[in-house]
Amino acid sequence: MLIEKHKNELLTLLISMMNEKQNCGRILRLLILFCLYGICLPPLHAKQDIASPQQTGKTYTIKGVVLDFNNEPIIGASVFIPGTSIGVATDLDGNYVLKVPANTKNIEFSYIGYEKKVVPFNPKDLNVFRVVTMKEDSGIALEDVTIVAFAKQKKESVLGSVSTIKPAELKTTSSNLTTGFAGKLAGVVAYQRSGEPGEDNAEFFIRGVTTFGTGKADPLILIDNIELTSSDLARLNTDDIASFSILKDATATALYGARGANGVILVTTKEGTEGKMKLSFRVESSFSAPSKEVEIADPLTFMKLHNEAVRTRNPDGALPYLESAIAAREKGLNPMAYPMVDWKDMLFKDFTTNYRGNMSLSGGGRVARYYVALSYSRDNGILKQVPSNLFDNNIKLDKYTVRSNVNINLTKTTELGVRVSGTFDSYQGPIQGGSQVYSQAIKASPVLFPAMYAPDAANQYTNHPMFGNYGTSANYLNPYAEMARGYKEYENTVILAQLELKQDFSFITEGLKGRLLGNVTRTSYYDLQRSYTPFYYALDSYDKKKDEYTLSALNPDLGTDYLGYSPGSKKVGSSLYLEASLSYDRTFVEKHNVSGMLVYTVREGKSGNENTLQKSLPTRNLGLAGRFTYGFSDRYFAEFNFGYNGSERFDKSHRWGFFPSGGLGWVVSNEKFWADKPISKVVNMLKLKGSYGLVGNDNISNNDNRFFYLSEVNMNNSGRGMNFGTNFDEGYNGISISRYANPKIGWEISHKMNVGFELKLFNDLEIQAEYFKERRTNILQERADIPSLMGFQAPIRANIGEAKGQGVDISLDYSHIFNKNLWTTIRGNFTYASSEFSEYEEPDYSATPWRSKIGSKLSQTYGYIAERLFVDDEDVANSPKQQFGEYTAGDIKYKDINRDGIIDEQDIVPIGYPTTPEIIYGFGFSVGYKAFDFNCFFQGSARSSFFISPLRITPFAQPYDPDNELGGKQANNALLQVIADNHWSESNQNMYAFWPRLSDTAISNNNQSSTWWLRDGTFLRMKSAEIGYTLPKRLTSKAKLENLRIYVSGTNLFNISKFKIWDTEMGNNGLGYPVQRVFNVGIQLSL
């Protein structure tokens, strides 16, 4: 039977490889081997004995049918005599015929997923074997089955590193699934940098980041076996998820070959189950507000300290604000003449409301089963409505999802799965985006002009809004006008259609199954803007006695009072995925479990409206993968996996990559010496496991550089042309090279090692701990040692980089039922992942070895070591010369690392921790008493650092604007309260004050990346809490309800951190749209 299995698998392999010309020789050799197997072995049929040893004495013939609990025949069930090799498998109708020696004591019936049934053999009563009914194995619960690559495995036999979580534990008060990852999944490093609807995806990596190339570093995401994006995952409804697995090591991910180097997130959606129709609803409403806001000093403090900033740097300079102007504002005089604007208050509300709802139908009969789900969510921003606008300028994100999963039994051995899903996003919000609006509120002076002017005498009949501005050119930033002047909208659609055909080939040989899957994905996106040009006004004069003012129009010919239209980008895309697999799983003589699988995959992707030739070309990939496992007596396990993948990105000479892996496992607690000892009552399960293997990554650069084996030449470059003629008025464009061909560029390869154990104590406590190491080789990098004299026009790239990483991840789950009224669960996990450069081509740093990246962390921060602030001018004169422009007492003093008396780039060193957290952890508990339940969860992060950008928060100065968010407008940074409270001054000569000596311009010396601006990213957050009440059955049954639960919950309730200016988890994005604190109420019911 084992060889018969290999014959079928080899046949599938041969068929799947026929289209690959380069595999012809390999196919021929396999074909010869296949034929030899076929000649040497006789065929086996369902009604034949599994083995027919020499028998002596009288025999009896028993025959009958094996049925399941629904009286349906079971195909391929084993019928055998325990302790012998005599047995058969049932046929297509569940029938069997077996010859039995007279001395037989028992006949055993078994099938995967069903309880073994032992029937005593009595020659005088053979009728008991005519109809044998088997029960489902209640011992193989959902928790005992793990979703792995392309299949399911019994948890006990899994040797790879796989983390699973119940979908309900991922549920958050947000419509974004990824915001619930942090701290809940061992091995996953996740953090959220923004709370803006539509932009609030968490960044997440599996066991950190171990590559420094420009390509893909995040994990492969598969939803129902289809590769999708993190945005698609974010939109997935937790109520639609059946299983959620994280594949981390080589054994778990090797089957994905070229795509699995960064780990895999594997999600399956729910399917219908046999039974009456079940209707479920969930409706939620929530209130959200910033978890922490940046505090801005009041306008009077702004003016006084702005004067101080000028005076402390230039005692003879003209002060920006007269004392009379400050006094007028203190008295609260006319705000049109003496404005004091709280831009944040003008732009943002204290909170907003959001809504979510979903519904699902499931059920079915013996032939067909269905699961249909609909969901809708509305996420609103915290922007205020502009009264003068006829449109809503707040953020509104509507999400609609529909899903239909239908399974149909075409025959007794054939099942057809039809899955269709669609997600539809509709967004409307400010033109700049919520984060830019929030940032602009901190980039505008609060005292130059009001947000809007009330009409003066000359403008009593002016119909358009009169936005404030300054000077004569309307070139100052007015955040209110920027928010009010229009909106943008986009529509994003993702539709998937999938057919899956499963065939049970147990009529050929027990345990053999086949599967075909085809999926088509269609995506579309467009955006547009509708806006008007604001009319700007400035204060022309003000009569204090009459309290009257006149205004001057700054742009009367440019302003508009209607919405214009500006089309944006349009993208359409499609992808085709085909998969064929053949699997075999069988247990011999009750002890030897053998399984195998071969999977052939084809992928093609197309995208329209791309802006470059390379991006417009289709992407195609082929892959062949296999898994082979062996288990002995549920104690010893071995597994071999491989991925054999082809990538279009590389030259034909090494376009195909082979990525093997292997693993071993030992369930110590299943040993006889363990089971008979008292320790088995304490340690109920102990498994040791280890694996090693290779996984590839072909996505080593962005899509603009897909084909490294080809040169990219611009044949019509005007910058490389020549002119000639009498007046040089004739000319031709020239040629330039933007990429040089390198046919040797190939796969980035990950060498992964994993060892660990799984432990269960007192039947209540489960612990899983793993230690992992990874070496990433062939990382694509630009050559740094090629002299510029060689005249290359473009960088030279090669697979020369290497990195290594290591760490541990630990998970703990405790559950206990005290009595029928009281239960509790406690859970926690811990992940430590650290990676560093091991090979990196860089300049010769032998004289300054601290500048070398080799040995440093991958996302390490670099900068100067700031010792303190200068005490006085004497301190400045007696210190090493700092090469960053002028500086004086109260400015930052840096450490001279190489002691040459000069502070320059030679003194830059690694500082702080990496920007990607090295430690992520979480812990929480749930408790239930009668109809009440309560749970809470804490999330933590450690060993990470981030920079506060002094350029972005320098008060009074023109804002640093590298992304051109201001569109060239002038502005004056607001004054953060932390700067107002703690800065160096003549009266506060604190050498360790938060802010150096004030200035109304950016001081280059103080703006260097250094430890002065580096902050510890460690925090502990109460991520969620929920209390619920489930109505008793005696009440729900009267209303013909199966279940009704009411609950209230909260997210991001509080945060513990040394850093107090903004939410620590936002890192260096603290001036963006804040992460939200959410309070939620919901109701869930089932009919």
Brief write-up:
It contains 16 helices and 51 strands.
Q: What this model shows, in words?
A:
The radius of gyration is 35 Å and the shape is globular. The strands form twelve sheets. The chain has a 22-stranded antiparallel beta barrel. Strands 10-15-16-13-14 form a five-stranded mixed β-sheet. Residues 1-56 have low confidence and may be disordered. The protein is 10% helix and 43% strand. It is mainly beta and 1087 residues long. Among the domains are: 5-40; 59-133, Carboxypeptidase-like, regulatory domain (Immunoglobulin-like, Sandwich), CATH 2.60.40; 842-917 and 949-1012, no CATH class. It is built from 16 helices and 51 strands. A hairpin with a 2-residue loop joins strand 13 (220-223) and strand 14 (226-228).
